[in-house]
Design goal:
The complex is a heterodimer of chains A (240) and B (240). Chain A is α/β, with parallel strands linked by helices and 240 residues long. Chain A has nine helices and ten strands. The longest helix of chain B is centred in the middle third of the chain and has 27 residues, at 129-155. The chains are: A alpha/beta (240), B mainly alpha (240).
Amino acid sequence: MIEVKSLVKNFGPKRAVDGVSFAVRRGDILGFLGPNGAGKSTTMKMITGFLRPDAGTATVDGIDVTADPVAVKRKLGYLPESAPAYGEMTVGEFLGFIAEVRGFRAKDAKRAQVERALALTHLAPVRGQTIETLSKGFKQRVGLAQALLHDPPALILDEPTDGLDPNQKNEVRSLIKTMAAEKAVILSTHILEEVEAICTRVIIITQGKVVVDETPERFRLRQPGARLDEIFRTLTQGDI
Amino acid sequence: MNQVCPIFRREFLGYFRAPVAYVFLIVFLVASVFLTFFVSKFYENNAATLMGYFNWQPWLFLFLIPAAGMRLWAEEKRAGTVELLFTLPITTLEAVLGKFLAAWAFLSLAVLMSFPLALTLGYLGNPDWGAVFTGYVGSILMAGAYLGVCSLTSALTKNQVISFVVSLLACLVLVFLGWNLFSDFTTAYLPAGLVELVANFGFKTHFDPFLKGVIELKDVAYFLSLTGFTLFLNVLALER
């Protein structure tokens, strides 16, 4: 579903992403791990067409993102880091806007999509509240609702559980898990337990390069008995 | 192109979701009415024209349109919503047009809300309605050109203050080029042909004929091409 081949991105003299390749099929939940500044978000931004890669390709459902960015954006649901949204709008207005841009123009279709997204993310009680007055957890859920609204075949979530309390984290994880059966999901996270809890594959990138691409079980076997964050630390030491 | 519509609606209604719209409309109307009545001496002139109102327009726009336009892109960049916007299935051109048209419609509303002035004129005297009409047309066209410049500068920075100052300076140059006091000054130093050529790039050169009730193709073309050109640069600036 999502295929990334030797993506490269430079920011001035710094090479942020250095030849990253991987593929995600439907049903996969890919956990994207790495220290801050390793190139996780940059890679995601290139897949979504927000940043143009300096080299390499990213395709979604066979469509190259540099060749037809709009077609790729139609197939993707994307939650950017820290879930930006138009703060002066209410949750309902904001999701209505997203629905319109996503092509649900008829009143009934628009309402149906918005209701579905509100229900999935438990946002119905705050639908009339302006987004800037919401707590961080609710804002994060608005971002998630926006990404899920058009039921996309591929989801890219940049730190989806950031800022949520433990209960909400669990809820979002089970939501992602239930949806993942027919979707390709990439999520980035700092929480290693999250990878164990829901991901079917783990990729670790450090200094712009992929250093691990395997199942969580195999990842654990690298150092039997060690805690996940210890393995992580050994692998990414060069970055500190 | 049908994606322009939801962007336009969100932007236009967005003005009224925040106090910005009301503050802007009130300041604009109070300032223009004050200048018309107390500086241009609407009553004492004893002439049934809106010249006293429209003559101030280039100077009033100089401050108020950069104030309205500075947030167009700078705010999206600061809040991070630009990432959300450009990962929705829309092209850069559609986003630029949607935002520009919404802001233009808002400014047109501000200009047209001076209509009681025209009604007063009709009650007191026997104005040339043609000239009133062309005055409004010219004013709205000129507002579009100012806004094009402001939208461009806003796309170049995420700092609204920088956007405001740069667009004010750019518009100031465009006003000065067509100001007769400025050309009177330059004729002493430059050949007449050059002075005329330079004046042709000025706002006032092309705005004044509208006030006399004349709509000339070259004046309409000037404002529309300046608008089009700045919007074209705007798209380039965002796709960098």
